[in-house]
Design brief:
allosteric enzyme; 17% strand; Rossmann fold; pyridoxal phosphate; binds pyridoxal-5'-phosphate; glycogen phosphorylase; Glyco_trans_35; alpha/beta; 4 domains; 30 helices; 880 residues; single chain
Amino acid sequence: MKALRRFTVRAHLPERMAALDRLSINLRWSWDKPTQDLFATIDSELWKQVGRDPVALLGQVSPKRLDELAADEPFLHQLDELAAELDDYLSRPLWYQQQLEHGAELPNGIAYFSMEFGVAEVLPNYSGGLGILAGDHLKSASDLGLPVIAVGLLYRSGYFRQSLTADGWQHESYPSLDPQGLPLRLLTDSSGSPVLVDLAMPEDSELRARVWIAQVGRIPLLLLDSDIPENDHDLRGVTDRLYGGDQEHRIKQEILAGIGGVRAIRAFTEVENLASPEVFHMNEGHAGFLGVERIRELIDAGLDFDTALTVVRSSTVFTTHTPVPAGIDRFPVEMVKRYFGGPADERSREGHRSSDQSHESSRLLPGVSLDRIIWFGAEDDPSKFNMAHMGLRLAQRANGVSLLHGKVSRGMFNELWPGFDPGEVPIGSITNGVHAPTWAAPEWVELGRELIGNDDIDTLREPAVWEKLHEVDPGHMWWIRSQLRAKLVADVRARLRRSWLERGASEAELGWIATAFDPDVLTIGFARRVPTYKRLTLMLRDEERLEALLLDTDRPIQLIVAGKSHPADDGGKALIQQVVKFADRPEVRHRIAFLPDYDMSMARQLYYGCDVWLNNPLRPLEACGTSGMKSALNGGLNLSIRDGWWDEWYDGENGWEIPTADGLADEGRRDDIEATALYDLMEKSVAPKFYDRNEHGVPTRWVEMVRHTLIALGPKVLASRMVRDYTEKYYAPAAQSLRRTVEPGADGEPFGAARELAAYRERAAEAWPKIQITDVDSYGLPDTPLLGSEMTLTATVQLADLAPDEVSVQAVLGRVDASDVLVDPVTVPMQHTDTADGGNYVFTTTAPLPVAGPVGYTVRVLPHHPLLAGDNELGLVTLA
Ligand SMILES: *Cc1c(COP(=O)(O)O)cnc(C)c1O
């Protein structure tokens, strides 16, 4: 008989062990090994059975065992220590507090929005890298003491669970999660009733959500949940699945995350008596609607639209994660109009007709004009609303997630800054990182502790700390790597058996699994989502060659493959099937396997145990990639196309680069070339090094590469480095901009500075078409100019109604190519030196010639205002 509904009842803990509750609810246990060990001692069998889930463990452990433990002094002692340690972790001054102490001007709060969060496998609210990155961001923010409040959705079925059919086809299932059985608490108001976030939907319906709070160390993660009786049946399903459903479903999710998310934060900070966050960070464009909700709030408080936009822009950071236009979220404009337009505001329902149709205002966002909202998402195709464009228009600061991706993004979004070369598009980059305490194997953490002499993870950012690895004996490092590989092999066998049984095999047929995979064989991992660009099947390009590598008698290789395909992507499922069919063959099945249901717990085993981490995306489509970083933190060597982070940090000795043929238009040939290079590397470089042993059986050259990888990449790949970079380069400047925009103006009214900037933007936009450079002169150069010779330039500029200090006039000079295009020019500011008639001004500069060879120059005018993040921000420029 199947139950109609399920719910979870939490066990009643003996008073003396009440701290277990705190330790299980705060997800900090997920990166604290001693706390995990404590839970394991409660009932080690059950701990494994429930998938290392403390809340589930406490729900199922027998009352008899709890009574036993209540009298177990060593256990209680350990419990008290860990509880005290957690309290200390949550309250002691950390990096952020120290920075404030030293006078740094930092935001008092940062709201971080993401559609997915991968914090721990017990809260499966993620599909892949984007979500795990968000989880790692929160954990590192917690370790640094940064005051972040995170917001997302609670998906009833998470993403999906993957299994395989007998035929090797991906099968999805959607087990329903019970929030009561998860490490969550409900946000309640001062009277104890659940807070409900409320959003007006088309046709007079309402979407309501309650707010769950997951505690990630110091960071509260607010998760909105629409599956509540207060909603109509169809709206209950809004938060059913991550990336499921059609666009109509998707826009509701994004409205809930963005607009509902801001409302959830307001309720949370009020209940908890916290300051409102100053900075809002959109992790990808999905949560972009948060900006329009903030504009609504400010209009509600009495500001006009442009001033409100100025305030919102000053304090918003937007991170883009995709280098492909097809990866960007776009909605039909008509759909956006249906949600944001509306049969006028509330008054129309009371019988007052809205008089001004063109300023139609929505029920969802009263007071905000639909036209302005639509403009935020405008792009080439007038029928589409582009969420990335909205993010860029609502954020004064934006970034990509690796150096290469920053560059690709500047090209991709160049159209929003017409008149500028891609290099000048104001999109920077911060290379992603990974949370070391989550992803480094306990064996390495233990070694680190011995070397450093304490567990202060803050010191991990110092390269000198990693240099201590020079002291470690190669034999010991090899021993750790071999332990980790052996554990992985045991885990792979268990997973293989489960998968074969699920696919319909009988135990009697599975005897071979006991000896499948070998703890001494070179182990290569490939696990990630399965979009086309990641090329899951590149390794199968020449099946015979791969088979020969797997079965080589002297230097065999074993390959572990995993990854989920999006449920709607049959192409991806066909790729998985291709791998499964190859790996099913009795000749090779002991050396290659596809393991179903890739998730954080499987990922961890793979990063710990694989000797080599393979990545072969189509360059430059991998924005950053983080799995290789996690492998590197465990001494795994990357074997990868130079894309994303690997393009930046490959140094010739910390792994291998697969040469890319990324200029080739013929994709088939490109795959052939890159696959051949991959096989060659495996055969001629990777395997020989791994099997080249000294008299003690230690592959010393390999171990030196492992050591070098840890030392060179360890301090770089850390998420704490990433979060500090965000804080210093984005959050702090955004908070400073915000503080300046809200300052009173000349009239003493608050937001005066924002009003001035908004007025300046309007005047600049109006003046711009009339601005002209009417005359440019150069003099002072000798007949034969030499490198460094000085040249004086003057330009006469018609400024329409702008003042000379409201523009930036620049000389741009440098090498020119055959068609007179300036290549990597230098920019020299010109000074206002004279005023002519009729709004004409003369600007001058003297500059040395920066390069030899064919040189050229031009002059340009840009808007300038102290509250802009840069002169290029508005995308306005006039060239001579
Ligand atoms: C790190 C991680 C990813 C991201 O891997 P990429 O190679 O960057 O795509 C995806 N899924 C899981 C479970 C991870 O831990």
